[in-house]
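Before the break, one more example. Copy the sequence into your notebook; we will annotate it together after we see the structure.
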Amino acid sequence: MKNIFLITVLFFTVSFIGKNHKSTVDANDIVGTWWNGEKDAKIRIFLAQNGKYSGKIEWMKEPNDPKGNPKVDDQNPNPKLRSTPRLGMVILKNFKFNTSDKRWEGGTVYDPKNGKTYDGHMSFEGSNTDKLNMRGFVMGMSWLGRTAVWERVK
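Here is what the structure looks like once it is written out:
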């Protein structure tokens, strides 16, 4: 009788965990606010009007320069854009979800700290949808780049 009780409890526990454990990744799972790798900025990822995913700087640990003025995009290669405030800047553009690879790809990542734009792709660390591997690379060569781990803001 004791074994039947234990088997029943185990069955319901496994069933409960199975229903509450997400084993698949959906395109919109990336939507939300993320800490960047250095944890000095929060980036909000959203589905843009073009049907692709973008991200903009929503918060900065140090939003102002030493003079107290808002930090601007002073490293931008386009002189006309160097006065654009970093806060509110869209730094991720045109990412599309690849259902077979379970990642977002085909987009670009802009780094306002150095004024460079990189090709990129993003994917979760396994089934953990609170850790995002953000890979930026040059000239379409994924192996020629670096990956930063972003964490979902709770």
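DSSP finds one helix and eight strands in the chain. The chain has a mean pLDDT of 87. Try to locate both features in your own notes.
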